[in-house]
Design the sequence.
């Protein structure tokens, strides 16, 4: 009989912060991002933190992605690997209690654990292995002649397709499956499983969870809340 699976997003779901953001910040600290670009990032970040618009976080991420792709074309993969490892060491244990405990519980029950994230595959794989996942998919950086091209192959636009590949490769069953995520890009995975969980959902995923009566769980400080729905 096939084993059931559970799939988790990583950034903002298992890890309390965004690993992608942390890597971009580290690139800036080490001088791989131009000062004027760093100032744009800071401005966008503060606009989000001050909640000037409902799209502040999305705008902040757009600036980050632009800075990241630009920086990739100037950094050697070996130097990049050092930064990834440093960020991994800093953030690997900065987890949410709810999802950390759910990962452990499901693994004890015999579930095959998958991680799918828009963050860089190098760090997603490290974090996933550290927390006992069986397989992980993240954004892969394309290279040519030993250097990054600035192009990225990311699962963020179709996490369901990435999940389908993992299910096929590992011969697991959809019966009693779990999916846990925090943003709208996770919604197709949640819609496909037996036990969806919208964890600390953004506005769009929250609306989708309410529409489909998915469980909504929020962890703030040291308290976990499950939001009741009619």
Sequence:
């Amino acid at each position: 009989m096939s084993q059931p699976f559970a799939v988790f997003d990583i950034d903002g779901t298992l890890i309390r912060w965004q690993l992608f953001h942390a890597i971009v910040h580290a690139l800036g600290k080490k001088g791989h991002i131009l000062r004027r670009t760093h100032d744009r990032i800071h401005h966008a970040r503060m606009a989000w933190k001050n909640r000037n618009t409902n799209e502040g976080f999305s705008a902040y991420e757009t600036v980050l992605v632009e800075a990241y792709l630009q920086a990739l074309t100037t950094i050697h993969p070996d130097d990049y690997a050092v930064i990834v490892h440093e960020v991994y060491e800093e953030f690997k244990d900065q987890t949410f209690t709810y999802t950390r405990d759910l990962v452990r519980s499901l693994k004890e029950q015999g579930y095959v654990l998958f991680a799918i994230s828009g963050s860089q595959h190098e760090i997603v794989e490290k974090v996933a292995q550290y927390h006992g996942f069986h397989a992980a998919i993240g954004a892969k950086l394309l290279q040519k002649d030993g250097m990054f091209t600035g192009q990225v192959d990311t699962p963020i636009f179709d996490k369901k397709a990435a999940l389908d590949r993992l299910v096929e490769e590992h011969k697991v069953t959809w019966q009693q499956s779990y999916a846990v995520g925090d943003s709208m890009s996770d919604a197709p995975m949640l819609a496909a499983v037996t036990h969806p969980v919208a964890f600390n959902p953004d506005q769009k995923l929250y609306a989708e969870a309410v529409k489909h009566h998915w469980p909504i769980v929020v962890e703030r400080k040291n308290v976990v809340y499950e939001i009741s729905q009619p």
